[in-house]
Design a protein that fits this description.
Elements: H1 7-10, H2 12-21, E1 23-31, H3 37-47, H4 53-66, H5 83-88, E2 95-100, E3 104-110, H6 118-125, E4 130-136, H7 143-154, E5 159-165, H8 174-190, E6 195-200, H9 224-230, E7 243-250, E8 258-262, E9 267-268, E10 273-277, E11 282-290, E12 293-294, E13 298-299, E14 303-308, E15 319-322, E16 329-339, E17 345-346, E18 350-355, E19 358-371, E20 378-379, E21 383-384, E22 389-401, H10 409-412, E23 413-417, E24 424-433, H11 435-439, H12 449-456, E25 461-466, H13 473-486, E26 491-495, H14 496-499, H15 511-530, E27 534-538, H16 544-552, E28 559-565, H17 568-574, H18 579-584, E29 606-609, H19 615-628
Parallel strand pairs: 1-3, 1-4, 4-5, 5-6, 25-27, 25-28, 26-27, 28-29
Antiparallel strand pairs: 2-3, 7-8, 7-15, 8-14, 9-13, 10-11, 10-15, 11-12, 11-14, 16-22, 16-24, 17-21, 18-19, 18-23, 19-20, 19-22, 23-24
Helix pairs in contact: 13-19, 15-16
Length: 635
């Protein structure tokens, strides 16, 4: 099985051709920390004779210096490449390794076992077709074993090898192996993992890794390598309807317009009728162009450029699909989220959602529950912390073409990105479109924002004042509105306290409530801008993410952020409503600046230093800004 083909020396062309025709298996090793994942992969590489002499010499030296096996080779060091990994004896990053045998090519991802690095495991599993889940025979099923198993199931990996490792430390006990297998099958049945191949092995000594060994004559099944070489994980993507997310519109000259992308499923031929989504326009394929010229056929997995018989509106992020079997289009979904960042995912917060080649805005609303990975119980939650798994509803700011993740990973898998720091905060899987998203449609109206703005003789916009309580936001906003009213402009002032008497009277002051408070106000402000008004918003709005979400709802230039920059000490000294005093005495919880954070703007359009400006001067500064940018003139 393991090999270095003799064709490499005698006939390199024949070797490359035979290598090209081999099937490729992508798999991961996962499980809890210190279950032996890196050691197992190192043993696979070593026994497959894919460790070069210089690597072997380095491994021998490193084993003496950093290894845990005394004078023996520590195979984990072949994979654990980071200095921190070698020092701590754990895997941190995802390590990818390539190897091959006479039967197959392999790409293996060694994923971290520590709970802190679950996000790295999700990355490695996202493209895998099989998972090798390791169990330490002495420890059995641990919380991270269950978490990784659940993630394997969620991510659509249906083939699992239960590698019961370190059999040498329990005397190669058949009884212990069968006990662990029974426990795991009971758990796996509850998370829809049914294709499980259990193999008892010792990664350190090589038992049942490549060859059976002599210590477990009671085991009659395949070795790990034997199973990896023979398992059928065919996705049969070519048999599914044609789908191709558009990566790039290719325009090398005025006479050529092609659409480049990778077929995620199906086949494509010249003359096939296709539909562009989400627009719904249809055309026929004129040509299919590959790296070496025109093609009569393209299949799932190929990267091509397709030209169409008609000029239709199609750009990066759109989807080409079979006209006779297009996927659905929707903007509201149920989805599973896996939290990947220290910053919690808050109900009501808006994120950037990247799905395939398309990026849209997405709001988590509501968060239905989070999962207890040990009991599989559904727990009520308003946030997801790092490594939590939860189910939510997602509201998008525009419709997308999709398929459930279990049918199509590329059209059903996505990530959520923080709008401010661009961190990836979650990986997600779409389940289905919400029925209400199919029943609610945009109604065409004859009178639009431009018409209303022209009637009002002004450019509608939002003037968003943010700062500590007591900074002077409401006073300044009120003076600005008085000034604009004197100039004949049509305005409305949304004040934080006033709105909480009606629209937001049901909200408290937790982080989640603050997020929802600003989300509602931003949506109201958007409607008022559509009505052609100049809208003044006076809210503490402590989080940058929510202010960025409000900005994203409006067109370029329609959102003006005003930072009423009053130091906390000065705002507390003023304390016009006595709120700081209550907060200091513990009578008022979650008060911004005392026991709840405030994130000041980093690039506000206007900054007002109220230690040197009076309220009247600050208000006049805002009016001057609007006038200088022609926002008070007829559009």
């Amino acid at each position: 099985m393991a090999h270095r083909s003799g064709l490499i020396a005698s006939d390199i062309d024949a070797y490359l051709e035979s290598h090209r025709r081999k099937s490729l298996l992508r798999f991961i090793t996962c499980g809890s920390v210190d279950d032996g994942k890196s050691t197992l992969i190192g043993r696979l590489l070593y026994e497959s004779k894919l460790v070069f002499e210089d690597q072997l010499a380095a491994l021998a030296a490193d084993s003496k210096k950093l290894g845990t096996r005394g004078e023996e080779l520590d195979f984990a060091l072949l994979v654990d490449g980071l200095a921190a990994e070698r020092e701590q004896g754990i895997t941190i990053d995802v390590a990818y390794r390539f190897f091959s045998t006479e039967q197959r090519k392999f790409i293996v991802a060694d994923t971290p076992g520590h709970e802190q690095y679950t996000r790295n495991m999700v990355t490695g599993a996202s493209t895998a077709e099989l998972a090798v889940l390791l169990l330490d025979t002495r420890k059995g099923l641990l919380p991270q074993t269950r978490r990784h198993s659940h993630l394997v199931s969620l991510l659509g990996i249906r083939h699992v090898v239960l590698a019961v490792n370190k059999m040498d430390l329990v005397g190669y006990s058949q009884e212990r192996f069968l006990q662990l297998l029974h426990e795991y099958r009971q758990f796996a049945r509850r998370i829809a993992l049914t294709d499980i191949t259990a193999i008892p092995l010792s990664a350190v000594h090589g038992d049942n890794v490549i060859e059976p060994g002599d210590h477990m004559p009671w085991y009659r099944g395949p070795t790990l390598m034997g199973h990896l070489e023979s398992v059928d994980v065919g996705q049969h993507t070519a048999a599914r309807p044609f789908r191709m997310p558009i990566q790039w519109v290719n325009r090398p000259d005025p006479d050529f317009r092609g659409f480049a992308g990778r077929l995620s499923s199906g086949t494509l031929r010249p003359g096939d009728r296709v539909r562009a989504l989400p627009s719904g326009q249809e055309s026929r394929v004129a040509k299919i162009i590959g790296p070496d010229g025109e093609l009569p056929l393209a299949v799932a997995g190929q990267c091509i450029t397709a030209t169409l018989a008609d000029e239709i509106d199609l750009s990066r992020g759109d989807l080409l699909a079979a006209a006779e079997a297009p996927p659905p289009v929707a903007d509201q979904f149920e989805a599973t989220l896996v939290a990947l960042h220290e910053e919690p995912i808050l109900q009501g917060r808006s994120y950037a959602m990247k799905i395939g080649t398309r990026t849209v805005g997405a709001t988590v609303n509501p968060l239905k529950f989070k999962l207890d990975v040990n009991t599989l119980e559904h727990l009520a939650a308003e946030r997801l912390e790092l490594n939590d798994i939860g189910v939510c509803e997602l509201e998008l700011d525009q419709p997308i073409a999709f398929e459930p993740y279990e049918q199509n990973r590329e059209l059903g898998g996505f990530i959520l990105i923080d709008r401010i720091n661009q961190h990836t905060v979650a990986a997600g899987l779409l389940h289905f479109a919400l029925r209400r998203s199919q029943n609610v449609h945009w109604q065409a109206l004859d009178i639009d924002k431009t018409t209303r703005a022209a009637l009002n003789g002004q450019r509608p916009c939002v003037i968003w004042l943010t700062g500590y309580s007591g900074a002077g936001k409401s006073t300044i906003a009120n003076l600005v509105e008085r000034r604009l009213h004197f100039l004949g402009r049509r305005t409305y002032l949304l004040d934080g306290d006033n709105v909480r008497h009606g629209l937001n009277r049901d909200l408290g002051f937790t982080d989640q409530d603050r997020v929802e408070n600003i989300r509602r106000v931003a949506e109201v402000a958007k409607l008022m801008v559509d009505a052609g008004l100049i809208v003044l918003v006076s809210f503490i709005s402590p989080f940058r993410a929510e202010r960025a979400g409000a900005r994203a709802l409006l067109a370029e230039g329609e959102f003006v952020e005003v930072f009423v920059d009053t130091p906390l000490a000065e705002a507390e000294r003023r304390d016009p409503k006595g709120l700081y005093g209550k907060a200091r005495r513990g009578e008022l919880k979650n008060f911004t600046g005392i026991d709840s954070p405030y994130e000041p703007p980093e690039q506000a359009e206007i900054r007002l230093d109220t230690t040197v400006l009076t309220a009247e001067q600050a208000a006049e500064r805002i009016v001057e800004f609007l006038s200088e940018r022609d926002m008070l003139k007829k559009p």
